[in-house]
Amino acid sequence: MKFNKALLLHNPNAGNKEIQFLRLNFTLNLLRRLGLDIIVEHTGAEEYSSRFSDRDILIVFGGDGTLHHLLPEASDWGIPVLLLPGGTTNVLVQELNMPYFLVENLMKLQNCRIRKMYLGSVDGRPFHLMASAGVDGHIISNVPSNLKKFLGVLAFGVTAITRGPEYEMKPFEIDSSGFSGEVTMAVISNSSSYGKFFRIAPRASLFTPDLDVCLFTSDSIVRLGRLLCDSITGNHLNHEDVIYYKTDRLTLKGAQDLPIQADGEIISRGSCEFGLYDRTLNIVCPE
């Protein structure tokens, strides 16, 4: 065991409450049997680092959205962060090749390594997975919370089918070192995984100081849907209406109602600046 004192932050609103309550209690029992001194707190407060300065690991029990909101303080604090799958999609757990099942995941604490994970930023706010503008933001903003809790990641697919066709494909401007021009959807990614099944930025890495950009220029929602389906295997990169490159800075200018999301959360509309965040995250990974 490399750690002695942990702060475990739990998001009570992530996933199915009844299931997560059982998983949380199982997690606490197992960690304590492994000899870890644990303090448990709900997310939503601030200044964890000053209130719990004696802790040597931060355990986040929640989903990607939970970690997203903790990024500013966690990256400032600098102690290792372990993410346990307790949310809807848990993409980072998948990206790090961490076991989804809690017993296997927690056992990794006894044989793990800590890696420096780079973060992207939107108007100075950090994200760890990806950010995007276009139809996916429209879908995310229209997923009913009760459907998300009941169906999990499938709620996004249902909403894409029912609400996606109504989205108006308005072009917006991109300005960066790799491309300047108009597109209809932009994904700025720090990870190769997008959602549970898609690989829109298959060459991206959490551990390199750059962002992978995937731009779509088609003005057809049907065509875009086909390209996104192709991204499950990475074949979307073979089409002429898809542009892919790496950068460390990108400016986006769109209409005031253009939805912009980061890590599955709507964070802005209209225009914004993307780049690399000025701090990194020390993330716990398998050996």
Summarize the structure in words.
With 287 residues, the chain is of the alpha+beta class. It folds into 2 domains: 5-110, Probable inorganic polyphosphate/atp-NAD kinase, domain 1 (Rossmann fold); 125-278, Tumour Suppressor Smad4 (Sandwich). Helix content is 28%, strand content 31%. The protein has helices at residues 17-33, 48-51, 64-77, 91-95, 102-107, 135-141, 145-151, 154-163, 221-230; strands at 5-10, 37-42, 57-62, 81-85, 112-117, 120-122, 125-127, 130-133, 172-176, 180-183, 185-189, 211-216, 242-247, 249-253, 259-262, 265-269, 272-276, 281-286. Strands 7-6-17-14-9-10 form a 6-stranded antiparallel beta sheet. The longest helix is centred in the first third of the chain and has 17 residues, at 17-33.
SSE succession: EHEHEHEHHEEEEHHHEEEEHEEEEEE
Helix percent band: 25-40%
Strand percent estimate: 25-35%
Assembly type: single chain
Residue windows where pLDDT falls under 50 for at least 5 positions: none
| Count of discrete structural domains | 2
The rounded distance between the terminal residues' Cα atoms is 13 Å
